[in-house]
C-alpha cells in the first residue's frame, strides 16, 4: 500500500523486498482512515477500500489509535457508520490499557478526560485518588479542570500522572486541534514530574497489539500520519513504519 | 529584614556584612506583600509596616511583579486599598516591558491574556498578528483560546511566542493556581519553539529596574517567594536574593 496525492492507493508492484516477510499491518485511524470533525467526520478517499482489501489479503490487520474522546464501542460504531468493516476486538485504544495498569498497580485515578470516555472507567474506584489520568479532553481542558488535576497531583506524596498519548495536535475538518500531549507537558512542568504515556508511542502499547496478532515486531508494519508517535514509535519497537500524507501531515511550505 | 513564622520582621541587628553595600531593595508583591484571592486578597501580616519602614530608610525601593491580570494602575490601586504606600511609578510589571519590545521589533501581537490586562494594549496594533503574547490568563485559558493562540503560531513562518513570566503556580487565598508558565510549556511543545520570557526571571527585566534605581546589581537585594523566578533570577544578575516563607513557599512535608 502506498500513498499518492493524499489518497490511499494499493500497490500491485514495486514493493521492497522486506514486504515478503510481512505478516501483519497496524493502521492508525484518525488522519489515516478518516478526518474527525463535525458529526462523525469524513472518511479519507480510498481508505474504506484499502481496509477491505487488507482484510481480503493474507495479512493480519489491527487498528491502533490514541482516540480517547469516546468509548471503544462508540468509536467503532462511528467508523462503521462511515463505511469501514471494523470490529471492536480489532481496535486498540489507550483507555482499556490504562485500566489494566490501574488494576495492576492498585491505583485510583482522578480523571481529566472527555465526557465521552467516562463510561470506560465506570467500574474503576475513583475515591481518594492517588494518580491522575489525562486524555484528549478537548473543551474539557478548562483552566478549572486543569487546575483541579494539578492540585490532586501536587497534593500527592508520590505524584503519578498517566497521559493517554502524547500527541501535539491533530487535524479536524475545521482545522488543527491541540492534543493531550501539550497538557501533559503543562502538568509535567507545574509538578516537576515525568508523565507515563499509555498509548502510542509507548513500546508496551505496541507490544500488546503484536501479542494479539501473535507476531514478531519485524513481521509487522505500522501506518500512520504522525511521524513521532506512529512511525517513530513503531520503528523503536522493531517494526516498519510508514507515514501517510493525509491527516496532520503538512506539505512543505504549507500553512494550515 | 528577615522572616519569622511566616511574617515580615525588621531586623535591627545581625545583618551580614554584605548589607553594608546595600543601596536598594526590590520586592516581589504577590506572596510577599499580599495573598491574592477573593476581592483584593489580603495583606500578609507585617508587610505594610515593612514597606513603610523601607521607605523611611536610606534604601531605594522598587516593586517587581509578574502580575498580568490587571493594568498597572488598577493593580497599584488594589495595593493602596490594602493599605500599602505604593505608587505606580515604583511598580514594574511585564506588560509595559512587552509593549516596548513589540514597538522595538515592529511586532503585532495576538493576545491570550486576562481581560483585565487588555487596556494596557489599547494603543497596540493587533491586526494580522505576527507573534503571540500569553499572560496569566487564568480562566481565560480555555481550550478554545489556547487552540486559537496555537493556530496563530503554527501558521506563522517564524513563530514568536512571548510569555509574561514563566511561573508554575501561585497561591491564592483558596489554594494553588496554575500560572502562565505551564501554558508557555504547552505552546512550546505544540509548536516546537522556545518562548521569550518577559518579566522575572529575565535578566533584561531585572536590569530595567536596576537602571531605574541607578544602581549596580551588587548594590541591590531582591526579596520574593519564588526560588527560581525571584531569588534565582536575581542571583543570576548579580543581585542578592532572599526567599520569604510566605506565599507559595511550602514548608517541608506540607501538602497544600
Describe the overall structure.
The structure is a homodimer of 256-residue chains. Chain A is α/β, with parallel strands linked by helices and 256 residues long. Helix content of chain A is 30%, strand content 20%. Chain A contains 7 helices and 15 strands. Chain A has helices at 47-56, 72-82, 94-104, 143-154, 180-191, 203-213, 227-236; strands spanning 2-4, 7-9, 24-27, 34-35, 42-43, 60-64, 91-92, 109-112, 131-134, 161-163, 169-172, 175-178, 196-197, 220-224, 240-243. In chain A, the strands form 5 sheets. Chain A has a 5-stranded parallel sheet. Chain A has a 4-stranded parallel sheet with strand order 8-9-10-13, with helices on one face. In chain A, helix 4 (143-154) packs across helix 5 (180-191). The longest helix of chain A has 12 residues, at 143-154. In chain A, 45% of the residues are buried. Residues 1-6 of chain A have low confidence and may be disordered.
Write the layout of secondary structure elements.
The structure is a homodimer of 256-residue chains.
Chain A lengths: L1 E3 L2 E3 L14 E4 L6 E2 L6 E2 L3 H10 L3 E5 L7 H11 L8 E2 L1 H11 L4 E4 L18 E4 L8 H12 L6 E3 L5 E4 L2 E4 L1 H12 L4 E2 L5 H11 L6 E5 L2 H10 L3 E4 L13
Parallel strand pairs in A: 3-6, 3-14, 6-7, 8-9, 9-10, 10-13, 14-15
Antiparallel strand pairs in A: 1-2, 4-5, 11-12
Helix pairs in contact in A: 4-5
Summary?
By secondary structure, chain A is of the alpha/beta class. The first copy, chain A, has helices spanning 47-56, 72-82, 94-104, 143-154, 180-191, 203-213, 227-236; strands spanning 2-4, 7-9, 24-27, 34-35, 42-43, 60-64, 91-92, 109-112, 131-134, 161-163, 169-172, 175-178, 196-197, 220-224, 240-243.
